[in-house]
């Protein structure tokens, strides 16, 4: 684990037994804590006063191309991932309604890929560089303890690549399917002396069911683990991501969606809207045991990201001297460090653990904007309209402790002090375009506390409470509503208080049951003020409240059969500055996911997945809603063994009945283009050839 999830797990570890990784697609089991110390063990999420889910990406039914966050993250209550069939825009991700209002990218949820933040210091994140096909598991943390992460009110999503170990294993995978989808992966893992390695290459091409939706992307992941001694270990994680082309079909109006949900917006065709992304990053981590009861962990990382995106900003809008044009060109670096000290022993005869640390994150982006036309030709880079440097620095100090005052009780308490500094240096200043340079600093102290009681060995109940804050992003600070120069210094950070009550049960054969009731109140919720003259301004729209219940269960039925359920009921409303109350846009009130898996003899496996979603409001006025839907999918696969060689064939059929549905919404879209169609009926078929180590799928 990484970050505060590791903190929380370590704090609850006194004493906890190690539990092996889950054997099924979505399960709550042990979260491995890779800390080199004789006292550290691997606590289960079952022993934590928080909602934590672990998604095993090696289990049956996970045979999908490594391109979709929606498929990879299914089965977690409270977590919603939209499907927009658009690789030029990240999949919309929200947890308990946090992040649903994001105009682009992912907001309100902390993202980490192999220990390196995929969320920038200002809170804007993306999962585009996460190669889910190469990942071993995903950890999802929801609720108050997410407050120990800077700029993350809703929760944490962490993607982890497996560590290399013996026996060595090599893997080749190819697949293809509907709508011109082609996917290929190669990988190798193992150990050479004291160094473990895991290397993966990934390549995907999509023609797309929607018009103007072609995309190509490739990536490479490398993880090296060097165990210098039983008390010291080094880990190097590197990632390269390249998306040279991703066409953007854009969202549709209600009339356009009804006429043909798979069409591209006319503006997308006129301006050839598209996006190019290149990103490289690397992180180095030291795990060092000190004596019997202490350990330190130090991580340093750095990377670079370049984005060029062509938008459909009309030519007449760009005529404004204040317009930033219709082409976004970003090129910048990021780096950071995280230092952590852990102590686990006893105080007054009772188990006590304490973790303290600090982190420092910096991002420096050169942001330029150009016209998206030259003469009468649209969709090409034209005259420079914006040139600035955006610098964001986030620093935090945190501490977390857990005491077990009695055998059946444990108390966890933590505190984080965060500071986020913004600085903009405007290099595009002339007689009609004023200087938009400026700076501002936000700071907050966010406490959390949790109490867990062990009713029985297999029944735990808990309560937790915490505060969190979320700063505006650079894009939200960029312009003032009155048109004057400088940052929008009137924006306040959103501040949230959360409460969660939960119960957890674990039974034989992997049976489990989790129930969580939660409530959250956010003051100074951020939202769009107005969009005019090529500039979008933001303001604090009021107080939003979220109340809901989450239920997840996994139940073994007759031999070889297993049933899974994840259900969420959420009421999210915002009270605006004029006193009006409305449903929070982008948040479905009910969501249900069911899965039925079968593992048979001779390497066979199969399963069904069903999902139902209620209607989704698309704007503050709640004048339109995306209709609810129900979908059904199926998968089947078989593995053959030939000595050390294993061959796996698998197939998926999604949206069996070919339902037309809205897969994602664009909240408060100015032209009424709220709707993005989900894919129709789609088939994906693949083959995997593995040598050595044993194919994970064959073990189930």
Folded structure, characterized:
The chain has 700 residues and is mostly beta strands. It has one domain (3-425, 433-699): TonB-dependent receptor, beta-barrel domain (Maltoporin, Chain A), CATH 2.40.170. Helix content is 5%, strand content 56%. It is built from 6 helices and 37 strands. The strands form 6 sheets. The protein has a 22-stranded antiparallel barrel. The longest helix has 9 residues, at 3-11. The radius of gyration is 25 Å and the shape is globular.
What is the secondary structure topology, with strand pairs?
Elements: H1 3-11, E1 26-27, E2 51-56, H2 69-72, E3 79-81, E4 93-95, E5 109-113, E6 116-117, E7 135-142, E8 155-161, E9 169-177, E10 181-192, E11 195-206, E12 215-229, E13 232-247, H3 254-259, H4 266-271, E14 274-290, E15 294-310, H5 315-318, E16 327-347, E17 350-370, E18 373-374, E19 377-378, E20 384-406, E21 409-426, E22 438-456, E23 459-470, H6 474-477, E24 494-506, E25 512-532, E26 535-556, E27 561-576, E28 581-583, E29 590-599, E30 604-613, E31 616-617, E32 625-626, E33 629-642, E34 645-654, E35 662-665, E36 675-677, E37 682-691
Short recap of the structure:
The chain has 700 residues and is mainly beta. It is built from six helices and 37 strands.
